[in-house]
Amino acid sequence: MPERMRLEQVDFHWPGSDRALAEISGTIQEGVWLAVIGPNGAGKTTLLRLLAGLEQPKHGQILVGGQSLSAYSSRERSTLIALMPQAIGPLFDLKVHTVVEMGRIGRYRFWDHLMRLQPSHRHAVEEALWATDTLDLADRNFTELSGGESRRVLLAMVLAQETPILLLDEPTVYLDPGHASDLLNRVESLVREQKKTVVMAYHDLSTVALYCDEIWAMDRGRVVMSGTASEVVLDPRMKELYALDFLSLTHPTRQRPVLLLP
Amino acid sequence: MTGLKRKDPARLPGERPKSASAWILWLVALVVSMALGLVHGSTVITMPQVWHAVLHPASGIIAVIIWEIRFPRIVAAALVGGGLAVAGAVMQALLQNPLADPYIVGASAGAGLGAIGAETVAPQMALMAPGAFIGALIAVFFAWSLSRGRGRSPMLTLLLAGYALSVLFSAVSTYLMLQNQTSLSTIFAWELGGIHGMVWAKVRVATVIMAVSGLILVPQIKTMNALLLGQDVAHGVGVPVRLSQALLLLSASLFTAAAVYLSGLIGFVGLVIPHLVRRLSGPEHERLIPFSFLAGATFMVLADTLAEHLPPLGIVPVGLITAFLGGPYFLYVLARQQGRRFF
Predict the structure, then answer these.
(1) Can you list the domains of chain B with their CATH numbers?
(2) Cβ-based contacts of B283 with chain A (< 8 Å)
(3) Domain of A101?
(4) B238, A161: Cβ pair inside 8 Å?
């Protein structure tokens, strides 16, 4: 499998604070669903922000397609990597289709700002609305949507970017189990059928073990464990990572590990 | 591709359906208001006479009144109203703040200081308008320079820096006004805003400046939609955020400075018109920007006609008219939004 992203000795710290990412290295392959786990404050969101190009590494580099991420322009980067926001609070009542259309803006030319949506953009927007089952919502106001609906619309927005890499930060937070598994199933079909590479920060370990291929476990800015999902979830070091002695079972139908609170 | 069974969509996700008729309505409103402005004025001229003079620009005194007095005034009013409304809409998107107006990051205080400075240094040369233009741009540039750098919320810094600069510049202006009593009434009249005695030369300068800022604005129109989703989201979908913010601020400041150059400080148009247009045709900037221009222009031409033609009150500065009309309307909208009915 070809490699999508490579991290080489990535260091980062926030200005005026010692919270940091330290010496993160690793490769992420095409068509792989990678989960980033770890306790609160471990640096999961920071890592995603770096992968999205929202922050620049202090040392080291992130390579995408053999080229350093910081060497891409905003427009080029937006056709390679999409970061799904957890939530947005637009100031005014934007329509759902306007929000989804924004996934195309990195590809807009001068005239696209004046004219109706061009066919190539319209096609991608429709495709994204279909994939997320949000076509019926297209004319609604974004702010009036329920939690599950707005999450699907944000997924549609990043799908409209048509990128090979998707970054998800806790995509199911605040969703009920039904809407959460619906969203995860959609992501799963993107990974399996379209060979998208997904990097997802997530807290629930059983869910991660059930859906994801690989896990990077982070602690205080470092990746302390990495491997296949089952390996990492069952690693004895998980006990120190979360200061918690999990009980593990095996999922009755999918044969994956399930962790329970002791 | 998606694995879902496809059915034909009832309607393609697209623009609001009434976009074309809204264009026609706003254009008609502007043309009608301009016609009203041409007909009404301190000299009584009938509609047929106006029509004749419009078609025959060299046909005597009425043609001179129409072409050299009323036309430049009306075109200037349209540019001022349109320019301020567009600048207001841009500032509201840029600063993520519904209360933003064209002057919010220091343009008005800078323009005031520029005008008073010019009047103090060279009272005979009538440099108030160019002084105001330059002062407005300098003040915004100052505020913007302070907001650059690696901070997390540059637009908040811009807003606060603009506020602080406004206070400082106003203090200096007041001091200069007190030192320079002779031109006090000239400057006071200018600050109220007015389009009286407009000449084509000034209109031409302002038209060129607004055309340039319009060209800067066009490739950022839908970028403003993305900025409404938040800076990080805009960045994620491929907007070069800092560059776009700088270009939007430049464009809005040029629109504002050109309007100030024509008319002094006219308030409320830039705040109220974008809100009015949003209520009518939504917050998407591909409609908000052009419709704000047309609505602002229409409103300003009507306000200016009223200002020139309110016999019982004498000549009222148009800046007061916009405040008298805009203030109550805005209160009405706010009351409606809170579910109250005072009016």
Answers:
(1) 21-337 (1.10.3470.10)
(2) 91-94
(3) 89-162
(4) yes
